[in-house]
Amino acid sequence: MISFILRKLHNLVSDKKFSEILTGSSWALGARVISTGLAMITSIIVARSYGAGVMGTIAMLNSFLTLTTIFTVLGTNTSILRLIPEYLTKYSPTSAFRVYRKTQYFVGGVSLITSVLLFFSSGFISETIFSKTHLKFYFALGALFIVFKSIMDLNTQAVRGLRLIKVFAFMQLLPALSKLIILIPITIFFYNQDNPIYAMFASIAITALTGAWIMDRVFKQRSAPGDIQHTMSMKDILKISTPMLMTATMTFVIGQTGVILLGIFRPETEVGYYSIAVRLSTLTAFILHAIGSMAGPKFSELYHLGKMEELFYVARKSAKLIFWTTVPILAALILLGKQILLLLYGADFTVVYWAMVLLVMGQFVNSISGSTGLFMNMTGNQNMFRNFVLIAAVLNVGLNILLIPTYGFYGAAIAGMISIMSWNIFTLCYIKIKFGKTIGYFPLLM
Asked: Do residues 154 and 78 make contact, with C-beta atoms less than 8 angstroms apart?
């Protein structure tokens, strides 16, 4: 079995047409592997030294920051991934820099206003929404870091748009690395139950400031006085970004509704257990993101150059690489999941094993589907993709509301599995109908 998988990977490595994405993915994948490993170490330290309750609080704060920054970034973190390669190809680095800078200022302004409003609304969020008055301080503190989280999200995608492979790998590694570097010494020398929360916020600020400096420096190096001067209005940028905003919102709903509703209906401890199940089941996400980080700009370039045959060739090769690198991990989680939970987090966390298995099944469908979301967004089909994700998100919310009060994190896992499967299947069917081809990889059927 292992030799068979290695042979499949060798065939991909030797493909010259796929070499650019493979080279970029290798850097991004390496960074994501290290980053995921560091995040696992951090979660183990938090679970064993601070308890499941703190894990649950961190999960709720992550959901809070992720949700708010969706509406402060307004989909520009995805559109900038498409616009930078497009403007570099059609016009010049100066034109691409103008689009980026205009977007950066807009996101900074919106996130600053949102930060102030949510800071003064922290009491309402903690008391009325979550019925946990002791979390008011944490939500107020989280509101202050919305600006940093928004700029971090934008710059990370902008680096992808410039196809700065090694820099993007560094940006992927920095949040987890800085968080762990901060957490270890303060746990040893200044132990406090809030330490993991402070480390998380500090890592966001460090990554945001580093990314802003990198983007400014790189664009100034590439720009020249004789560059073609072509810009794009913020209205036009938002016209492209709005469907992507809706998609990002619905993707958040699919991924985080379980955590939020568990936080509303259940104690922090149960949220902490479920957050570990989500973390393990999405271990393969770093592979999808790593390959997608290089495939996305290539999809945009090939589509705008009209090279449809090459576009589908690259998309299918990406899906094949995703399959053979993720399925062994997913299989290991099903076969050895209970032992992994016991070894890493302790006996208490083995209770979430079957919920993790359900989530892994959803991730399997995600793996065989390929980079469906990126393909749709990079080829001008963002409106239809938004519709598919919207349907899946509504299904997810309905199932969570129906199942969580009775079945707890098992209900959240069932809802997550069904919603992930649904939007991937919808998207694959649409691509097949519109283009007459598929980008998924189904080895038993092909």
From this structure: no
For the record, the structure tokens of 72 come out as: 């402060």
CA-to-CA separations, 155 to 28, 32, 77, 138, 149, in angstroms, rounded? 16, 17, 8, 25, 10
Q: Classify residue 28: in a domain, yes or no.
A: yes
pLDDT digits (tens, 9 = 90+) for 43-72: 889 888 888 788 888 888 888 898 888 889
Give the domain extent around 258.
2-435
440 domain residue, yes or no: no
Number of domains within the chain: 1
Residue 21 scores a pLDDT above 60? no
Q: Which residues contact 406 (CB under 8 A, 6 or more apart)?
A: none
Q: Calculate the dihedral angle through the C-alpha atoms of 404, 410, 413, 419, rounding to the nearest 10 degrees.
A: -60
* DSSP three-state, residue 33: helix
Q: Is residue 83 part of a domain?
A: yes
Say if residues 12 and 18 touch (Cβ distance below 8 Å).
Answer: yes
The answer to whether 400 touches 257, Cβ cutoff 8 Å, is yes
Nearest to 313 by CA among 12, 5, 8, 6: 12
Spatial separation of the C-alpha atoms in residues 425 and 431, rounded to whole Å? 10
pTM of the model: 0.66
Convert the pLDDT of each residue in 270-299 to its tens digit.
Answer: 877 888 888 888 777 767 776 766 676 677
Asked whether residue 442 is assigned to any structural domain, the reply reads no
- Residue partners of 268: CB distance under 8 A and separation at least 6: 52, 53, 54, 55, 56, 57, 60, 132
Structure tokens at 359: 């989530």
